[in-house]
Every structure is written in structure tokens, then in C-alpha cells.
Specification:
Distance between the termini: 31 Å
Strand order of the largest sheet: 1-2-3-4-5
Structural class: alpha/beta
Strand content: 15-25%
Number of strands: 5
Largest sheet: 5 strands, parallel
Order of helices and strands: EEHEHEHE
Oligomer: single chain
Length: 94
């Protein structure tokens, strides 16, 4: 069975060849992300940080809104910032 989504939490994380999508943790260096993206090529790259996503032209963001009291408002604000890029959301269950 393939693991399609991997989270890269440190610059020592290995490249997983069976991944289709990488979630890049906030705090990774721009140089690491650029190199990692070049090595992995042709995959989906999501950042946990909007600014990094936009600056490095990644495919989208994964945002944790599990503590949000105004989730619809926050989603709308994020959508304005990232345009048509992928928006993944972590939310709480009610």
C-alpha cells in the first residue's frame, strides 16, 4: 500500500518516492524547500505557511483552523490571499 501524503518536518526527512503530495512544515528553510522540490519533481507541495507558499510558488497550503471560532471568515481571508491554489484545512469535529 502506498502512502500518498508525507509531512516533511525537518531538513533530515528522507525523500519518499511513493508520495504524491508533500506537506512542508513551517520553519523549513527556503533553500531546503527549493532543493527538495527539485529532487521530488512532479508532486504536489503544500506549505503550512501562506507566505512560503506564495514566495516559492508552491501548489497550496495546509492550515490548522481547529481552534478557530470563525472558520468561514478565516477560510475566506486565506482564499483571498492564495487565490486558486490548493487549500487544505484541519478543523475540529463538533
Amino acid at each position: 500500500m502506498y502512502n500518498l501524503i508525507y509531512k516533511i518536518e525537518s531538513e533530515k526527512s528522507p525523500l519518499k518516492t511513493d508520495a504524491e503530495c508533500y506537506i512542508l512544515a513551517a520553519g523549513l528553510s527556503e533553500n531546503f524547500i527549493k532543493d527538495f522540490k527539485a529532487k521530488a519533481g512532479g508532486k504536489i507541495f503544500l506549505s503550512e505557511d501562506i507566505e512560503t507558499c506564495l514566495k516559492l510558488n508552491l501548489d497550496g497550503v495546509l492550515i490548522d483552523l481547529s481552534k478557530s471560532e470563525q472558520i468561514k471568515k478565516e477560510i475566506a481571508q486565506i482564499r483571498v490571499q492564495i487565490g486558486s491554489k490548493v487549500l487544505g484545512i484541519i478543523s475540529r469535529s463538533r
